[in-house]
Write a structure and sequence with these properties.
Mean pLDDT: 81
Oligomer: single chain
Order of helices and strands: HEEEEHEEEEHEEEEHH
Helix content: 10-25%
Strand content: 25-35%
Shape: globular
Number of strands: 12
Structural class: alpha+beta
């Protein structure tokens, strides 16, 4: 009886395990599945380096330089269009067209060829964005609290002490070569290792989100954000900076007054005819 029940429990656990893998495989395509909450303002960027700035009172603030934007809206997803989620897909970075697949080239037809594309869930709120809209770091302001999502650094295969924080065995009293060993991994009754048992294995390359980070400065000329504190990932890693407050405003491009005046002068010069004196005509002949 015990063997029959244990076999049924094992089959049930395997079914749940495969279902969990299937859900994770579908969520890997849509970045925003693992996103916490809905975002109102968001931008993509890459981590550059860390530095420090001084406030007016002289205090030192450690900051991370992030090269963010400009980002272009590549697709608007809605539940009504069988997209399963309300999201905005944005693109960031430059990429040569021949490096993109045919599907990506068709998806970005009429837009700039971008290197990264990510989906950001927006919930039922209408952002007022449309395909082709472009915005920069100007949507954020100093002092705003944001959350930053990135991919942590890869650390390779690590043991249980570093990976899970095990204390390890005593260093003496007969514990030879057992200082950083994992120890027992279960009883002999089930004759198997339970799923989820903490062991050594691959560490890092995980999606990490750090919340409540303050924006210290916004550099619109260089498309940079100075964010207080450390940010997950290595230099050059892709980051998603978002906040649940505010809205993205798309600035309309207007012609500068100097350009308008120059165009008007050219038009006037074309319309007016210049009278050449008769004496100059004779000289030319």
């Amino acid at each position: 009886m015990f063997t029959f029940v244990s076999r049924k429990l094992e089959e049930h656990s395997q079914t749940l395990y495969h279902l969990h893998d299937a859900l994770r495989s579908t969520s890997s395509f849509l970045y925003s599945i693992d996103q916490v909450g809905f975002s109102m303002k968001f931008i993509l960027g890459t981590k550059k380096s860390m530095t420090q700035v001084f406030r007016e009172d002289g205090t030192v603030v450690p900051v991370t330089r992030v090269h963010a934007g400009p980002c272009v809206v590549t697709q608007i997803k809605t539940k009504e269009k069988s997209d399963l989620v309300n999201a905005v897909q944005i693109g960031f970075g430059e990429q040569k067209a021949f490096r993109l697949s045919k599907a990506a080239q068709g998806h970005l037809k009429g837009l700039a060829t971008v290197r990264y594309m990510r989906d950001i869930k927006t919930g039922d709120v209408d952002q007022g964005l449309k395909r082709g809209d472009t915005y920069t770091v100007s949507v954020f302001t100093e002092g705003e609290k944001v959350q930053v999502t990135g991919t942590s650094k890869g650390k390779g295969f690590q043991g249980v002490v570093k990976r899970h924080g095990f204390r390890g065995s005593p260093a003496s009293h007969g514990h030879k070569d057992q200082l950083r060993m994992p120890g027992s991994i279960g009883a002999t009754g089930p004759a198997r290792v339970f799923k989820g048992t903490r062991m050594g294995g691959h560490m890092g390359v995980d999606q990490v989100t750090v919340k409540n980070l303050e924006i210290i400065a916004v550099d619109e000329e260089n498309n940079e954000l100075l964010i207080k504190g450390a940010i997950p990932g290595a230099r050059g890693g892709l980051l998603v900076i978002s906040t649940s407050e505010g809205a993205i405003e798309i600035a309309t491009v207007e012609e500068a007054p100097a350009q308008k005046d120059a165009q008007e002068e050219v038009e006037v010069s074309k319309d007016t005819e210049v009278d050449v004196p008769a004496s100059e005509e004779k000289k030319d002949n």
